[in-house]
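Mechanosensitive ion channel: structure, please.
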Amino acid sequence: MLKDLIQRFSDWIDQYPWLEMLTSLSIVILLAFLLYVLTRKVVVVGLRRLINKLPFAHKNIFENHSVIRRIANIVPALFIINAIASVPHLSEKFVQMVQMLAQAWIFITIALSISEFLNIFNLIYQRNPKSQNKPIKGYLQLVKLIVYIVCALMILGTFLKKDVFTLLAGFGAMAAVLMLVFQNTILSLVASVQISSYDMIRIGDWIEMPSLGADGTVIDMSLHTVKVQNFDKTYTTIPTNRLVTDTFKNWRGMADANCRRIKRSIYIDQSSIHFLNDSEFEKLQNFLILQQYLKQKTEELSKWNRTVTDLRNQRRLTNLGTFRAYLVHYLRQHPSISQEETLLVRQLQPTPQGVPLEIYVFSKTTVWADYEDIQSDIFDHILAIIGEFGLHAYQAPSGLDLNTWLDQKNEV
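Here you go.
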């Protein structure tokens, strides 16, 4: 009886081919959806639980990325490719189009899965301390680009019904165009290799590139760009090849040495420079750090002057020379100044603003705030003590100085 019922239903539905086609197509779509749900809920969840039980690190990275879920999308596409041909009354062109679309979906899914896996690999690699010196993000982006190009060629070959190698042979004539299109990528790839080979930049380096307005810390390096966070919390994106063709300053050496240079001058009024008289000499002897210097210098000058009969040719101590010696001894005893690095107090070429007396030393810290405090404390002391040597720091006349001078002249 059931057999007769099925036969009658089959005879009836044969009278409506469109209904048979829609019913069969609905069944295929429903089964594909059920396979998708089954794969996501059973296979994907099962694989994730298996990964969680495996004894290896970085399991949380796999949990936060969708490599397994993307691969699961292939199952319903494979089912549609094989089942769509069994749907009756469909045109052959429609069947082929659906199969090609499903195949293209498979290629895209595989390409995205490979890209996601490369992202996971990069995150795991970044947790290695050596990754700061040898970032691989640029190389992984190149691999992604190749994968996407191969995927696009395979999809194009699917719709054109041609082999991939045949398409590649056809693209040989377009090599010049492709070189023009991908010239930035090629230049960036070569620059990335040079930067990595010569260890020019690492993530975390402080670089300064005035031509592009970059002055801060490197926070990301990719194939095409290097991202710098400036000290004012803005971001500058530098094309990778510009780091090879243009000039920039890398402060990594300062950080590795754990000291930072102080190079600043104070301008001495030339009219205040003179020989020390007896009262000034006695006054300066009260400075403990100058007693040994004054004693040694006095003995040296006495030996020289005994051989010179003309008083005009005799050598004498100057307040500027003594002040320079004082600063050297002061910096030698400063707890925040590195004694292993260069330490100079030198006189530069005189200028219309006075005689520059330059301090050239290195602080023991590279912390910005501490460095500025050390530098400011040194020059606070210099500006405060300079009057004890009878010297004056140069300062251009201000309006107040002119008013004071005019008032004094009027009183006279």
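Notes: The chain has 17 helices and eight strands.
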